[in-house]
Amino acid sequence: HVQLVESGGGSVQPGGSLRLSCAASGYTYSSYCMGWFRQAPGKEREGVAAIDGDGSTHYADPVKGRFTISKSKDNADNTLSLRMTSLQPEDTAMYYCAAGKGTDGPLHPGGYDDWGPGTQVTVS
Predict the structure, then answer these.
(1) From CA 94, how far away is CA 114, in angstroms rounded?
(2) How far apart are CA 103 and CA 33, in angstroms?
(3) Pairing state between β 119-123 and 10-12
(4) Contacts of 121 (CB under 8 A, 6+ apart)
(5) How far apart are CA 41 and CA 51, in angstroms?
(6) pLDDT tens-digit series, residues 52-108
(7) 3-state secondary structure (DSSP) of residue 3
């Protein structure tokens, strides 16, 4: 049973930074994609950043150069991180960690099977 739990969200001023973490347990498919998605009120969920099983990273255009995704492994568990800098009000959203095959593209939510409950990021 895969369990994903996000942490690290909060409120920051424009220009500030945050680091999100996602603890992934029961996740044994190292070849799968892991990604960060976000959803603002009234908007569709969108991909922010993703990392393939081979370590290749992918970023949505609005966050390129500002966000950095990384993954570490400790025994059977994975930790997915998202370093966010130069945050702007438009980055305000609920941020979700996800894992899956990424068959619809690494930044498309349709290709992910497992999701965390989310962590709120507010920039104002």
Answers:
(1) 16
(2) 9
(3) parallel
(4) 9, 10, 12, 18, 20, 38, 84, 87, 91, 92, 93, 94, 95
(5) 26
(6) 988 899 999 999 999 999 998 776 678 899 999 999 999 999 999 999 888 889 999
(7) strand
How long is the chain? 124
Radius of gyration of the chain (CA): 13
CB atoms < 10 A from the CB of 107, how many? 19
The CA–CA distances, whole Å, from 21 to 13, 50, 81, 98, 103 equal 20, 13, 4, 12, 24
Sign of CA dihedral 13, 68, 117, 25: negative
Strand 33-39 vs strand 10-12: parallel, antiparallel, or unpaired?
Answer: unpaired
